[in-house]
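Consider this one:
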Amino acid sequence: MAGALDGIRVVDLTTVVLGPWATQMLGDMGADVIKVETHQGDTTRHTGEKKNPKMASFFMMTNRNKRSIILDLRQQEGRDALFKLVGTADVFVHNMRPSVAAKLGLDDEKFMKAYPHLVYVKTYGYRSGAPQENQPAYDDIIQAASGLADLQTIVSEGGHPRYLPTIAADKAAAFHIVSGALAGLLHKQRTGEGQVIEVPMFESLVDYVMVEHAGGAAFEPASGEMGYARILNSKRKPYQTKDGYLAVLPYSDQNWDSVFRIAGREDLRDNPLFASLASRTKHSAEIYGVLEEIIATRTTEEWERDLNEASVANQRVNTKEDLLNNEQLNATDFWKFADHPTEGRIRMTDPPVRFSKSPNSIRRLQPLHGQHSEEVLAEAGYSQEEITAMLEARVTGGDKLS
């Protein structure tokens, strides 16, 4: 069965994780994604473990279901080729700052004037039309700016701000790229017109943080302090059992009664701190301190058995390595394996979302650098003679399968 975006073409002029992970999701949904790269290639081609040059793990995890073309945008002919290529597309995504896009003549006004049907998605650090619109931004920078790094002071050694050990800002904004592009395509289907969609990392992550931490600031004037006490609690963590670590979250009154019963601590049932959700939230540090003591009294397996029987949410702590042979992931065929023409046997994650009528799929393995340059240029209307001249002038180029 064809994917939901079968017949949709996406021109992807993005690098690192923010854009490429988003466009990979669009590719998984069936879109024809054309990845435009410089002669140096996306930086992720060189980041992480690798067997061969320019095919590192970062690139492998964010660039399946794509074709790769090299275009030198410093040359006018390269910019002309990009412009012509975008004319064949439904969606164009780039992560150039506004000043850079304008300098290259790749700003949205030019594209939308020529291609009013186009869904033009631009993503970068900060919303345009404001003081920081042209500042460079990476995940660490946005974690700091958004307040996310400051939230870690509660759990970090010495009470210092820290970054989450995952690329949270890039990934959070990537989902907005996908949803924005899909909404743009729906609008185009209904009206026949394209539009410009801006996805800023900073505003995306502030929105992400404020869901639970706006607190009293959700009202004007503020009705109280900001922050969700249960989350801003140093005792909120996986608890040590007799032989490991276990995440446990009793939520309802019945859940807490079950934990007390299993632990043989019926004396806690009448403690007013545990009497209601409101009380438990207000006194979460004390509550979790008690839970930490209780969990330490039994083994992980004992807790899992009895908590599962009582329908109390729990999960043992998995390491990265544990996930490679996880029972749940294996049962859902989450890990996908394929024989790549240059990288040999490779492992990929399954697209998490399942569709009953238009399933996600992995149709193309990760492309070599510029592997499809000639093919894509021909599709855009260039003759073989023109392509040969572009290769000689290094407007384009690419690696080929041997």
